[in-house]
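Box 3.1. Reading complex inputs
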Amino acid sequence: MSTTAAQRFLRDAAEKSADLVHRDLIRRGMESYDAAHLAGRARIKDWEAARQKCQEIKREAINHLDRYLLQFEEKVIARGGHVFWAADSEEACTYVKNLATRLGVRTVVKSKSMVTEEIHLSPALEKVGIKVWETDFGEYIVQLRDEPPYHIVTPAMHLNRGQIAKLFREKVDPKIDSDDPAYLMGAARRKLRQAFFAAEMGISGANFLVADAGVIAISTNEGNGRLCTSVPRIHVVVTGIEKVIPRLEDLAVLWPVLATSGTGQGITTYSTLIGGPRQPGEVDGPEEFHVVLVDNGRSQLLADPEQREVLHCIRCGACLNICPVFRHVGGHTYGTTYPGPIGSVLTPHLAGIKEFKHLSYASSLCGACTSVCPVKIDLHHHLLQNRRNATEAGATKSSERLMFRAWRSIMLHPRMYALGGWSMRNALRIIYGLGLAGSILDPMRVWNRHRSPVPLPSESFRARWRKGLGAN
Amino acid sequence: MAQTENPSRDRILGRIHAGLRTVIPEPAATRSDRIIFEPINDPLKRFQQECVANLMECTLTGDCAASAGQLSKVLQSLPDGEAFLQDHPSLRRLIELAVPERAVRWSTQGSPAEASQATITLAEALIAQTGSILVTASCGGRGASVIAPCHIVYATAAQLVPDLASALGRLSQQRSLDRNSFACVISGSSRTADIEKILVQGAHGPRRLVVILQTGGY
């Protein structure tokens, strides 16, 4: 049976919002994030000035994207690195696959990278017999469960320690006998250490590409990103073209703001800069360094005057954490690489407005996402624009268009409006009176199925207005 | 070296040029007088405070002999196993005074072994604002700060800079990244909070980051 992405979303959203264990886990996770985020913001003297500065840095970078990418490329090549420009997922995956095959790679260690999720790099490598190890602890857990990441910063947020201990007993070591997080991390560390030292290739993402210095910047807490980029003999960076920033000094504000928005830290534990393979005289480091710059629909957004700024996103996850919809339905319900508000804005551009237009409605338009975005992306208005764009592109159902035409004409004719209100009040009174609220005969079924009906007013607003409501 | 074949490079650049032809009016830039981060008046005090917040160990010493004593104490607290050291005259002098009862491997002899118990390096700078140490590939290589369970940094107070902006500015001015393929701002030991947001110290990298901060020169 084929279901559409919208049907799957509705089904999974209903399931997840009724799953009280899941909701409790997310609530506790988000409460802990909220406290850390607020404390982190308080450590910055002028948070609004910091956001404004980050917005300006990213705006300058995106408005001169060609110039900064070329500057970055030139520097990397000068240090003996390679830069490959991939128009889409297929080109990016083929490049990495061919490189791995040519250089005799059998094992790959990966640090966290949302772009590699977007282009489905791991399945492409596994198809040609290459073993891929996710080494971020959360990513390792979801890889063992054969699941995509739940959240762009904390991939295994939907699991509790008991579930993870059980998973480790089944997949890592049957002798695991504790669900203590430090103990479980120790077990993963021992297993993954073997992988780090056996792998021929390390694959990482990049949080930023610094144009003037020609280096990539990676922020990681666990140190797995450090090992992936230090131990194997080949390092491949897979990243989006929009990650470029003009100057090294820009990181003096971007690093603290990314860390504060992502986890509430003042700065991520390892804020790393890498500009090429091991240089003459250096003790260690990979012999080969490749940067794959992925377009995959991003350049199309440049021509959109309303939504170009979506390319400013630094993938901190703050909009997911604050979103009341995300907090109820969770990350997997979205069925997209990027969940939450930023994913709902971006996915229709990357994967098609027709199939993903429903995501624009997965929002109460409360604007909480916009209020926390560290680069000030006007997220909730972009969701509104996507709704409009979907309608203009004719991606809506004919029944929906017909309904809105009828609604428009009723709104333009006061008598019809009054008649409509009167009929609805009386029809609902009868339905509720017969105890049919929430049944298939109830026009308010979607609401009343899981809730008590809202009490019906005895008369219309217009009638109350005439009686002097206006004067009060 | 062979040029990377890049069939889509021009096409992507063409799409970028075409997209950027749409001109979007830019709002006025921020007033430059807005101060984002609290100015740092006492870098040493701030560095020590941030080290505590980052769960690092920072000990102030007066001279080389005191630093060697501190190093011995830290090494004695660690399990048996090799120590890896950045090959630098100041660390050679320190190790002569500390006389560790364990095998020592210098960075000129290769990269640190996976089983190393400690790595001992210098830093390029210490950053007061974030309680961080700045290392480059010159500080014993990439693995020196991440492979062993304990990373010990021997630094002097003269290496303190107030904030990230000055540390990054110095990297740019001295063109350090032209000579080094790697640099890292390290702010504590490796950690994770991937299970129920509970902090675990010691993930894939060191469980301990120890700074021996000498108030006098090396």
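In summary: The mean pLDDT of chain A is 95.
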